[in-house]
Input
Amino acid sequence: MKILSLVTAALLAATVIPASAAEISDGKVKIGILNDQSGVYADFGGKWSFEAAKMAVEDFGGTVQGAPIEVITADHQNKADIASNIARQWYDTEQVDSIMELTTSSVALAVQGISAEKKKIDLITGAASSDLTGKACSPYGFHWAYDTHALAVGTGGALVKQGGDTWFFLTADYAFGYSLEEQTSNFVKSQGGQVLGAVRHPLGTTDYSSFLLQAQSSGAKVVGLANAGLDTANAIKQAAEFGIVAGGQRMAALLFTLAEVHGLGLEAAQGLTLTESFYWDRDDESRKFAQRFFEKTGRMPNMIQAGTYSGVLQYLKAIDKAGTDETEAVAKLMHEMPVEDVFARGGKVAANGRLISDLYLLEVKKPSESTKDWDYFKVLATVPGDEAYIKPAESGCPLVK
Amino acid sequence: MTMIFGIPVQAFLGQLLVGLINGSFYAMLSLGLAIIFGLLRVINFAHGAQYMLGAFVGYLLLVHLGIGYWPALIIAPIIVGIFGIVIERLALSKLYDIDPLYGLLFTFGLALVIEGVFRYYYGVSGNPYSVPALLAGGTNLGFMFLPNYRGWVVVASLAVCLGTWFAIEKTRLGAYLRAATENPRLVQAFGVNVPLLLTLTYGLGSALAGLAGILAAPVYQVSPLMGSNLIIVVFAVVVVGGMGSIMGAIVTGYMLGLAEGLTKVFYPEASSIVIFVIMAIVLLVRPAGLFGKDA
Output
């Protein structure tokens, strides 16, 4: 009898172990990196985010719970309809378990909706709109790296503190631009400042001179650029040309990263204040990571790319801990587990899916201050995540009670 | 303060000037397109890529050989022109006798390839190219602060446009060219080397695009996408002006630049489509374009 029970126990144990590998759907974990790889945001995230995701898989060991991990990628061309088609195809016929990166807010909002409907996890690093963890939040949706509210508090707050109390906005004409403009306006007003006007330009505008003249004649102390990528770079370059900065107005690039500073050059970008949640030259750990990234890509990572690395890693850790890639179980663990990696230190995920981690207020160095390649930023301050992000209870997300 | 349509007259003048500057680029690019279409009957979709090449040649000359803006202003168009000649000899010349659609498809594909290669090597964020020291800074015109470089762009483009128009409409070589498009066989019978003329024409059109590119380099980021952002607008300019009409392309280029500039003041959201709205209206009312001959 005793022997029999031992044998059954052993048999049970033996069946339990392979069973856990069977808990991985289709025998593998497949992650899709969906972003802009050919348009104005192709350096902001682009194929470099794909590289970062592959690095995370490599660092995790290439398998989870005995199942191989695969990363695939596609270019959504900043179009929500194209992105939606790809997302449906990935989920329905290609066994993709999770879609990540999702640069461009209009795309992220669309894909997060599809993911929620299909009960799949999506993790956003490239899009900014705080609605993603606000009224459009999903129980399976996560937002890493940054959002419009954090940028408003970081860059907006710093400039108001330095006396920039009147603002004029140049805003990209879609969800992200509106969200960034609105939140920065609210923040500026809450600090006693004033918004004198705003002008909305189409995504991918090449000539900003007309808008800049309007900003110039408004007399605002700060010209807030509620756009991103190549749009911001062009606006800054042309602002210098039209004597905006020389005339005493300040340019505030609300969303600007290492990648755009690199494209613009220090000569044109010097003195800009910006906010990022990652800087490669932060400490030894980040430098080591960045060096490895550089060897693969020839460039240093910005917060989108480092954030994608962190997001993929965290997703794999959660699968490993859950012993399954079943969405409910993994999402539950991702909400509970602390985020501790080269990107986020002491990070935690709120009930609305928002990763709360520190951001850095940075200033672009003068060419004379830069001592090595990619040595672009001075760290002015650390903005604690709890101050930068909307409190989950106030985010408007129905999931937060 | 005097107001025009609710905005101060000074701001209004500023916007007109800005429109004129953008119009300069439209005019120069559509001029090249119009020449190529008028004489070769090729719809040159690679024009945007050739414009981008002009900017990149300038950038690469500076970075690798230390050659500055002024020499590049001569060298870049020559290099792009030679590139155009090679393309014409190797491929385009073989397509003249078949449906013009093939020329369009070929140049369109070529543009995608060129842009793809540059995007692969240089990313899309673009590379900085500084304004030459001589033209740095700006002049306060009273109603606006005009960057000197942009002033130069207007002057240079006007000179180039008028010079090209003069060369084609008023000189003997231009007369050969025009005759060769009307009746190539007859002109050849008079001992004029028609294939050579066509090759040179394509080279000239390409060189014009390259020149616009190097002129644009200090204004915009030198980016692989700079051409594709512009080319569609430029095609609209050519259509509005009348396919193949050289003066039409020049005048329409400046006009549409102004129209776009004004839209940016009154309703910025529409600024990227206003040119196409105008194109649609012109096509409805005057299908051959404003300056087209066979209406």
User: Anything to note?
Assistant: Chain A touches chain B through 40 residues (CB under 8 Å). Residues 14-21 of chain A have pLDDT under 50 and may be disordered. Residues 2-22 of chain A form the longest helix (21 residues).
